[in-house]
Amino acid sequence: xxxxxxxxxxxxxxxxxxxxxxxxxxxxxxxxxxxxxxxxxxxxxxxxxxxxxxxxxxxxxxxxxxxxxxxxxxxxxxxxxxxxxxxxxxxxxxxxxxxxxxxxxxxxxxxxxxxxxxxxxxxxxxxxxxxxxxxxxxxxxxxxxxxxxxxxxxxxxxxxxxxxxxxxxxxxxxxxxxxxxxxxxxxxxxxxxxxxxxxxxxxxxxxxxxxxxxxxxxxxxxxxxxxxxxxxxxxxxxxxxxxxxxxxxxxxxx
Length: 254
Ligand code: F6R
Prior knowledge:
This protein has helices spanning 9-26, 41-49, 76-88, 105-118, 155-161, 180-184, 199-207, and strands at 2-6, 31-34, 58-61, 63-65, 95-96, 124-127, 149-152, 174-177, 189-193, 225-230, 242-244. α2 packs parallel to α3 (76-88). The chain has seven helices and eleven strands.
C-alpha cells in the first residue's frame, strides 16, 4: 500500500486525478469505478482539467439509494451524471449506476455485479471512507467477501448524508452497494480522504486490525492500494509507509 499525504483537499484531487489520468492515457478503454460523496469531488474537478479523451472509458458507480424517485437530484444516478459523466465527457451509455428503482432490487444488485465482470472488471476503483469505516455502503459487519446487494444504511451514514437532503428523514434507509468482495476484485484501489473528521477512521482502517467492524480495513489485503490523504485526514497515521508529497514534486500535477 502506498500512502501519499498532501497539504489539502484540492491537492488530494490533483494527485488522485493524475493517477486516473495515467490509467486512461495508457488504456483508453479503461474501466473506472467511481464514488460519490464529498471526497472525490476535488478528483473530478482536477481530472476535468486534463481534458482527456474519455470516449472509450467505461464507468461503474459504487452504490445507489433504493427508493428515490427517478431523476431525484441526490440519487447517485444524478450525482454521477452531473459530477462524472458530464464533467469528464464520458459517453452516458458507458456509465452504469445500480438501479435503485428496480422492482426487484436484489436482482438488480446481482445483475450489476455480473455487468462489472462482463466488462472485464474494474481497472481502478476510486473510494471514499465513511466515519464508521464503510466503503461504498458496506456498513460495519459486512462480510469481507460480500457481493453487490441491498443493504440498510447505518444511522450514522444517514446522519452524515442528511446534508444533501431537505431533512434527515428524507435520506433513504436502503441502498444497493457493491460488496467488499466485488470491490476487492478491482485491480487498483484508490482511496481519497480529506478533513480532520476522517483522521481516526483512516488510521484504524489502514493501520489497525483487519476486521468487519471496520470494513475499509479489508484494503489491507489488496495487492495494489493507493491512498491520497490531506494532512488533516492523515494526522493519526503512523509514519511507516507514509510518503509526504508536494504536488509540484509529483509527475501528476496539472
Ligand atoms: C459514495 C460512497 C461512500 C462515501 C463515504 C464518504 O459512493 O460509496 O462510501 O465514499 O460515505 O463520503 P464523503 O466523501 O462524503 O465523506
